[in-house]
Amino acid sequence: MDWRAFANLLSSERLPAAIVDLDAMDRNVDRVLDALAGTDKTCRVASKSVRHVGLLRRILERGGARFRGLMCFTLEEACFLHDRGFDDLLVAYPSLQASALADVAGRVAEGATIRPMVDAREHLEACARAARAAGTTLEVVLELDVAYQPARRVHLGALRSPLRTARQLVALAREAASMEGVEVAGLMGYEAHVAGLPDDSPFSRALNPARRALKRLAVPQVAKARAEAVSALRQAGVDLRLVNGGGSGSLDTTTAEACVTEVTAGSGFLCSHLFDYFRAAHFEPAAFFALEVSRAPTDDVITCLGGGYVASGEPGWDRLPVPWMPPGLSYISMEGAGEVQTPLRLSGHGPRPRVGEPVIFRHAKAGELAERFTEYLLVRSGEVVAREPTYRGEGGCFL
Ligand SMILES: Cc1ncc(COP(=O)(O)O)c(C=O)c1O
Hints:
Layout: H1 3-9, E1 17-21, H2 22-36, E2 42-46, H3 53-63, E3 67-72, H4 75-83, E4 89-91, H5 98-109, E5 114-118, H6 121-133, E6 138-143, H7 166-177, E7 182-189, H8 192-195, H9 208-235, E8 242-245, H10 251-254, E9 262-265, H11 267-270, E10 287-298, E11 301-305, E12 322-325, E13 329-331, E14 341-346, E15 358-362, E16 375-380, E17 383-389
Parallel strand pairs: 1-16, 2-3, 2-9, 3-4, 4-5, 5-6, 6-7, 7-8, 8-9
Antiparallel strand pairs: 1-10, 10-11, 10-15, 11-14, 12-15, 13-14, 16-17
Bound molecules: pyridoxal-5'-phosphate (PLP).
Residues 46, 49, 71, 92, 190, 195, 247-248, 264-268 line the site of pyridoxal-5'-phosphate.
């Protein structure tokens, strides 16, 4: 859709509005299916990168048998999704919240598949306590740190699990085996420094060659670490039912690993703008938001109402939404995306939105857009076909 098509679509809508192009999202699901073709892997959908029940349902439905389960971001979110009919839920970030673990254990006792992530004895103990109280066993997944570590004290990758070696994993698996109420069922190693690192970021071009070099060096190292971990755990008698890795930005390399049973993808389905800069991942923009142009302070500046939807992560210009349509709009460096107002400079190329007309933006991160809107307008063939609540619209606020 071009800017005129968006403007027509939104002419009688309240602004700000968030829009998802279901046709583009379907094609992104098909791209993930293509990445899985010829492999024995399935895709687990990262709910944090969607945060919208209606869209999660549509993604799983289109993915069919090759898409299996959700990767959740909190225990409470997993219960919220279970209430809405989802199952096979891997909670990828550890938590010791007793009430949430009790809720999870109660559901598992009644037949749900919800697996918490663990990397420490304390996690195992909290899971085991909840499981025993519910008269069940919680299947847990161990997280391996697969960061690139070329030298002591150099850690290139996300700081997540302290478990860096197969030996440490086996030791924790043995602790689990000695505890009533928990059982190790899987392994996860997330290569954030591959899956989350763009090759051609326009925001910090000088670092692109270093990023690409790191990725080249890291990929074989991640594969080796995961394979060694799987083999050591199996030798120690652990029945691994899932081995999870990767993300939207690493489908090509993660699916190539024999020991991996499933890859994760989330951001690629909506393709927030940080996913424009990967060489191996080709997704198309499917999620947008529209702000009203509310004033024009100078001849070459228009100001939108709202817009400061800054994404999480290392602070920088790449965390701001990009003004997407009409083309030729840029931020004013001293203001950026504002809490209440966002001025944009016009380049003179492309149409000039008038006061009252919309400017279309794309968020930097796919799921965080849903924290700003209560509903998404779902569009097919250029027409709004449904309006469905985001997590926020359903009162779901988990972090
Ligand atoms: C454990 C884990 N796996 C996979 C992903 C990748 O998700 P996405 O495809 O949304 O980038 C993430 C993102 O942070 C993650 O934390």
